[in-house]
Amino acid sequence: MSNLHPAGPLPAPKTQRGERTRQKILDAAEREIGARGFSDASIATITAEAAVAQGTFYLYFRSKEEVLRELVLRMGRRLRHHLTLATAGAGDRMQAERLGIRAFLQFVRDNPNLYRVVAESQFVDPAIHRAYYEEFAAGYRVGLEEAESRGEIAPGHAEVRAWALMGVTDMVGRRYAIYDRDGPLDAAAEAAYDFVAHGIGPRAAGRGAKT
Amino acid sequence: MSNLHPAGPLPAPKTQRGERTRQKILDAAEREIGARGFSDASIATITAEAAVAQGTFYLYFRSKEEVLRELVLRMGRRLRHHLTLATAGAGDRMQAERLGIRAFLQFVRDNPNLYRVVAESQFVDPAIHRAYYEEFAAGYRVGLEEAESRGEIAPGHAEVRAWALMGVTDMVGRRYAIYDRDGPLDAAAEAAYDFVAHGIGPRAAGRGAKT
């Protein structure tokens, strides 16, 4: 386990061909680390899977740790992009939450290796793992504050809510998209949305139970 | 990483002295694995910390993996015991949730090593990690179903809610009890309870916002 950050990633490849090679190495590393775990995954297997010479690895990455860090960033970028697309048509924040929860479960189902790599990164590089969650939470918090100011959600503690919401999707995702690889996701997503929208407390008479 | 379960744990020590030695080894392993991580933690350091001969380790445990499994079980037992005590005086389910959230945050703050050991176990023995969460969820689900039948919570999907509730405390715990080692916990616990009780959706006019 290393807490040390090296001088930063190597410079980005100058050619399209170089960038393609770098992505091939990352794809192979995602499969290999996701399937076998960080400590069992070897650079030799990653380069063999990527069909490049072992020395080529070091043109793009200093170490296996640096590949892991890049995969965590990749997960963040892809997930944000996926959620942005999925919630683009939402008319308000609650509708965005509903669409976002469903889209998150699908993303985890479709990217179990990335999910695992992010989880394992906390034991390889705690700082990058923490940054992953803190960046997500920061964006979430801003969105919640804006929604509150527009009256789209009830007033509340945006920071706690941001982490709570990440916890809901993280754990429901674990249960329904990782442990259960094949079951339908719609009912779980809808129930998770109901939880997020209304909580579990008894509801006042006459209040619409579901939106 | 090993998915193989050995024949099961060694038989429990027959004497009180033996049981004390076994617990000393587990205490040292909790500190050592919690601080340095599973792969860097060594049996030599664990036995030195426990002030027992290295060979003594093998009277009680077959391997470092077996110690990790026992620590996950220890975390489950201690957390359940802690939550049972903390919620014993609750008059209904929502009050139990409120007390339970506060108690969980305190437990994580007081036991960062156990929290880390459980998280890391998913990469050492995925089955024990999954069992840890599934057992908690099963107990949670039963409690929610009973509370629903008594009218103490709104009707809903008990299985999804169980995992969502674990996610809330897990992630709020990470933010306020692990990343933030010293800050006050009461406000975060209260905000998490508000989230669990009411969600974030806009609240109908005339409905009490907080219980």
Automatic annotation (TrEMBL), chains A, B:
Keywords: DNA-binding, Transcription, Transcription regulation
One Gene Ontology term of the molecular function aspect: DNA-binding transcription factor activity
Region of interest called Disordered, as start-end residue ranges on this chain: 1-21
DNA-binding interval(s): 42-61
Taxonomic superkingdom: Bacteria
Taxonomic lineage of the native organism: Bacteria, Pseudomonadati, Pseudomonadota, Alphaproteobacteria, Hyphomicrobiales
Residue ranges constituting the HTH tetR-type domain according to the UniProt record: 19-79
Protein name, as recorded: TetR family transcriptional regulator
A Pfam entry, by short name: TetR_N
